[in-house]
Amino acid sequence: MPRAGNPAPRVIRYESDEALINSLGFPSKGVEYTASRLQQAEPLLNGTPVVASVSGRAPDEILRCHRRLEPLATAIEINISSPNTLGLRIFQQADTLRQLLAQINEQRRKPLFIKLPPYLETPSIGSEQKDMVFSLVEVCVEQGVEAITMVADIRAETGSGLAINACGGIFSGEDALAAIQAGATTVQILTSLIYRGPGIVRRINEQMLSLMDREHMPALTLLIRPNLLQSS
């Protein structure tokens, strides 16, 4: 269903820090509109991978979006990370997520990504949220999910057989390389794209190559966990 999202203002820029805070609430024109746009774009993509991100307030809504968009995308991301979307937090409960993923696995044919909520570092809160995140990670591993968010801690918990997409704070080749060295398989940008423009993608790649050459690092694929590469 189309959704207006949260009322404005819902995006705040802290330009001195090149930071963004958003409380969008997932505004959307609906899954049918999105499907139509993907179909129109297909001839122009020339094989470029497309990951469609879906969310919802109830399992049936997410399942319907997944079913409709999976044939039009390379992979699907299920986003349960938002702290400010009414109803979404039910999927941050391990049992609820387990049930949802079991249903998705019955119908899915392509890779599935789960975007998890971050945990805080404050000791009084962080340990509880970290336990919650790791319980969700356990569910994702059990259900065969192929990628999740956050890096070093989750890599340490899950070993090398799981793809991890690092998202947040990637502004340079150094940032991207640090995420990969921490255990990420891929990196994702948004805020840096907004502040630095589309040229940031090429600059990150060039900076990574320069750093790797200077530090005599091997090919990028060799920095990514070997067992993961063998299993992919």
Automatic annotation (TrEMBL):
<keyword id="KW-0560">Oxidoreductase</keyword>
<protein>
    <submittedName>
        <fullName>Dihydroorotate dehydrogenase (Quinone)</fullName>
    </submittedName>
</protein>
<keyword id="KW-0288">FMN</keyword>
<comment type="pathway">
    <text>Pyrimidine metabolism; UMP biosynthesis via de novo pathway.</text>
</comment>
<keyword id="KW-0285">Flavoprotein</keyword>
<dbReference type="GO" id="GO:0004152">
    <property type="term" value="F:dihydroorotate dehydrogenase activity"/>
</dbReference>
<dbReference type="InterPro" id="IPR050074">
    <property type="entry name" value="DHO_dehydrogenase"/>
</dbReference>
<feature type="domain" description="Dihydroorotate dehydrogenase catalytic">
    <location>
        <begin position="147"/>
        <end position="212"/>
    </location>
</feature>
<dbReference type="Pfam" id="PF01180">
    <property type="entry name" value="DHO_dh"/>
</dbReference>
<dbReference type="GO" id="GO:0009220">
    <property type="term" value="P:pyrimidine ribonucleotide biosynthetic process"/>
</dbReference>
<feature type="domain" description="Dihydroorotate dehydrogenase catalytic">
    <location>
        <begin position="2"/>
        <end position="121"/>
    </location>
</feature>
<dbReference type="InterPro" id="IPR013785">
    <property type="entry name" value="Aldolase_TIM"/>
</dbReference>
<dbReference type="GO" id="GO:0005737">
    <property type="term" value="C:cytoplasm"/>
</dbReference>
<dbReference type="InterPro" id="IPR005720">
    <property type="entry name" value="Dihydroorotate_DH_cat"/>
</dbReference>
<dbReference type="GO" id="GO:0006207">
    <property type="term" value="P:'de novo' pyrimidine nucleobase biosynthetic process"/>
</dbReference>
